[in-house]
Amino acid sequence: MKRFVFGAAVQGASHVRNGKECQDSLRKVEKDPDTVILAVADGHGSEACPYSRTGSDIAVKVFCRLMSNYLDRYAGQPETLMTFFKREGDTKVAQEIDAEWKRRVWKRHCAGRREIPTDEQGEKDKNAVYTMYGSTLIGLVITGTFLFAFQLGDGDIMEVTEHGVHNVIAADKILGTETHSLSRNESWKKAVTCIKRQSEPKLPVMYMLSSDGMSNSYKSEEEFHKTCRGYYELLREHGARAVSRHLKEWLRETSELGCGDDITALFAYLTDGAKE
User: Which CATH superfamily is domain 2-271 in?
Assistant: First the structure.
């Protein structure tokens, strides 16, 4: 079995017109031949969140670092780690991600000597600082034994095989433009997680993490799923290197024809090696 991990983040068409930087971030860590960590974050980009690009960058780094720590801590004990994620994924693990993101945001804000708002009592208002860096976060850990998926806010984690297109995790969708955010007080309570045992993989299989700019660029979930299937078929026919080479171009086109938002897509493609 061969594994290819690649992705891209592109500035949305509307952001290009308005001179607004891309607020998305992505990160991947390939631990060993059987294990990879993927993360995508989408900074809110509103006037209240002027540093959300930094917030999303911190988010993907936090997820990958903490997941890597867990994998090291439970090295050689995949069943034990799987049980831990199943029991503590949306509580202890989510709390740790929440706390570490806020710790790093506060440290970055202070190091940058940026103004710190005060509350009604004249005390430093940390919550106001967190809001400036607001971001969502989705993440996926793929091992030979299990999948662990994490989601806080919008975005999609998809699995595509010859048998169909499936959401790895059923996220808590919010209507309108609002979304759950790492910047909120006790944000961990809005995290959704999923643990899934890996049997013999039905190769090839594609996992795709994408910011909501991708799915929002299609008229329906069905159309989005068709696009996921399209990427899968491109990978099977042309290989990961060819798809990776054209990915930014395709994502820009999707944004231009769709919602105009930033788009990030991060792939893990597992194959028998017929195409590279």
Answer: PPM-type phosphatase domain (3.60.40.10)
